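Cross-check.
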Amino acid sequence: MVESAPAMSASPPSAWSSRDFRRLTAARFLLSFAAQIQTLVMAWQVYRLTRDPLHLGLIGLVEAAPALSLALFAGDLVDRRDPLKVYKNVIRGVLVSAAILLTVSLPATKVPPHAQLFWIYAAAFVAGCARGFSQPSLYAIVPQMIPRESLAVSSAWITSAFQTASVFGPAVGGVLFAWRGPATPYAVDAALLVGALLCASAVAFRPAPARSSGERGFDRVTSGLRHVLAHDVLLAALALDMFAVLFGGVEAILPIFAGEILKVGAVGLGLLQAAPSAGALIGSALMIRRPADRGAGRTLLWVVTGFGLCMIAFALSRDMILSMALLALAGGLDSVSMVIRSAIVQLASPDRMRGRVASVNAIFIGVSNELGAFESGVAAKFLGTVPSVVFGGALTLATVAFAAAVSPRLRRLDLGSLKA
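Predicted model, tokenized:
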């Protein structure tokens, strides 16, 4: 971690040649595709019912509360159980939430608007419960499938699958909503989740039996948190990403930009929501070809800086094409950050506690994404939509400056020298 080491020699085939890894990546893709459709349609439904940014932010809060509350328990469970079985149960949980949304959206059910709002939040809560177990289980499976020297590339593959789903998911959701209302996209959502479950069930790999750490109760559950807090580079990388997205993210209030500022409707909302992922797909594909082994810390700081600048420019844009381009660029930069952070988490995690360290990473991500969505709604409510995004981008830049000042090891980080 302190001194340089030769760059890791990893190539895409070393990860992609594993049939089980391909099946797991396919499950990740379909789960993400379904989640993107579900997120967009839920947001557009809430926006049409309330026209209130605070209610949009509440979707993120309702989903984040169970995910964050269960994360440490989830990491401990994953380290003591078969993480593949846990991941399949994650898919089943999200499928339950999709079934709730589909049922209340069918014209035959005749659910009144105020009751629809309740069930949307209920479905978000169920999805949040499932998501609390998603990242710990996935991060515990992959390092047992893939050689250590190929983990950075495998992270880029999984990120690419996620970003591909994030490109097409919102666009498909927006088009289906505009064409047939909410029931059709929710039906597609459920079908994709069934496909994800089938892919995960086809994985033949079985993780090694968990070994007892000798710890009990509270000490065992919180050991991942203690490891992260004691690991200066891991903590700095997670905190940098958390605060950057917490302050700079705009996804929760994109319906306001689509409906009131750019005036492009549900289809335009789908395009806006897909734009960051289109850029992110390019970013993660570049990371497959050229993993950021050397100079990873400097790269991380620069891409988060660019992300903050893009958010400020997006807030000031009044042109749909320019806005999409800025969101795409921001997504590409964020994808590079995501790949580097994922590699840091896996390389800096002891084998016996990968699930628990990943659960702490999930907490940081949940705070940045779901609580960030709530923060976006509150800030837009009280500061105004455009000023809140400009202010958030400025705070992102301040976060980068602070991280660079207090963590010289992060500035000098090479992935090849990182130790658990």
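The domain at 12-207+218-417 is CATH 1.20.1250.20 (Growth Hormone; Chain: A;). DSSP finds 18 helices and no strands in the chain. Passed to J.P. for a second look.
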